[in-house]
Write a structure and sequence with these properties.
21 helices, mainly alpha, single chain, globular
Amino acid sequence: MEYQSIEKKPKEEEFTIELINAHLHGVNSTRSFLTNLTAEKFIDLIEKNQTFPSFQQWMNYYLWLFRNEEEFQQIISEPKFPTKFLVQFIYYSLGKWISGDNEPDEFFMEIATLFSPEKCLQILIDENIVELDVNLALAFISNLDEAGINIYFDRTGNRNDETNFFYDLFSELEDSMIKSFFIKNPELYTYILQMFKREKDKSEIHQKKFENFVEKFKVDLEIIDLTLDIKEKVLQKFDLEKEKSVPCSQRNLSRLVGIINALKGNKNASDIVQILYRQKTIIDREEKELIRSILTDEYMRNMINISENVKL
């Protein structure tokens, strides 16, 4: 039996009743309705109706559609927005992501960008994400600065066991996630490596763990170091916002040539190009394919006559 309304209801209540009964609105009218709600009313709508499966399903659907819009990102990062609902939204989004033929490994880092660092910290603590999913936990942790990390450890009672926390986390981590994690937050990369190095001399156990960590992720760490070095030099020398505003043919060729020369002969060049592309240091697909072609095709490299004197 459908949920019935007998008398004229406020607009948000009518909307809620229709979602509960799986009566869908048009995308544009739904967006207009939701963006006209205050954050307080939006959150109230969620809290009152999240136990209705149909309401939750379609709200997840609309949040997924509007996920890249600033208004919705601000609302879902509100302190009072229920974290339990957001976890359900994240796993709904994972299904949509995979059905769109995207790489599952990239999902958690992408979804974490929708939330403010403060909201990431709140979800991590309130929903005990580390126990739920280490990949999601790491994505949220990568959004935190050093102060946020300290709050996390203080609130979860892990203050005296930070080193083992990260060793255990990395031992369960999909290998492909380590590059994304550290590239996204270079400060955290430095913080964790310094902590590992500081602790390794305190006991044979930590010494062994550090050696195992470096051995396991040796190639990844080399890739991270080189990628961060290239990214930092590009940001220092070039105005990427200005570069984005013009066609590829009108951009500063020294940036592309400098990246090519930095990667020439590197067996991990293809991985680094992909990371630089995801990090927007390589601006678009056209640049990415051009750089890859020159790095892998000697004929094209000779034809274009890349100067080896151009450095970042």
